[in-house]
Design goal:
Blueprint: H1 2-17, H2 22-30, H3 32-47, H4 63-85, H5 135-144
The structure holds zinc ion.
Zinc ion is lined by residues 95, 97-98, 100, 112, 114-115, 117.
Length: 145
């Protein structure tokens, strides 16, 4: 059972690494395949008596595990597709608070034009932008002038 969670975490991590790329969509499309193949061949485990010491007829008693595997395939593929569709973080210069793309701006600009956060901004969730007249910002202006 722990393999269900491990497989899901590995697939979702790979989907996160390859967001909005062809490889990411391939991962999302193909990640259900191994689980579905496992579900297909679970009745073979019933033949060799997996899960019980009593002799079994092929496939009997393994329907529950097959249902779990089908559910695992649907959940893993669905969440992987959702993760792949998430936007990638900006690769160039960006505001540390609002993630506004600063790549086309003057390099000497020290304030985000979108939210007013100084260039030494931060990305803490729930925290507001820094005050313009903070000590750090003021001392930087003093040295620039
Ligand atoms: Zn900003």
């Amino acid at each position: 059972m722990i393999l269900f969670a491990v497989y899901a975490v590995v697939v979702w991590w790979m989907a996160m690494r390859h967001r909005r790329t062809l490889a990411g969509f391939a991962i999302a499309a193909l990640c259900a395949l191994p689980v579905l193949l496992a579900a297909r061949y679970v009745p073979v485990l019933g033949v060799i008596g997996y899960g019980s010491a009593a002799p079994r007829t092929p496939g009997r008693g393994m329907e529950g595990l097959q249902i779990l595997l089908f559910a695992e395939a649907v959940v893993v593929a669905g969440v992987a597709l959702f993760i792949v569709c998430l936007p990638r973080p900006p690769s160039g210069r960006h505001c540390g608070y609002c993630w506004y793309d600063l790549s086309g701006l003057d390099p000497d600009t020290d304030v985000c034009p979108e939210c007013g956060t100084p260039r030494t901004g931060y990305a803490r969730p729930g925290a507001g932008p820094k005050v313009q007249g903070s000590n750090t910002h003021r001392s930087n202006q003093g040295t620039a002038l």
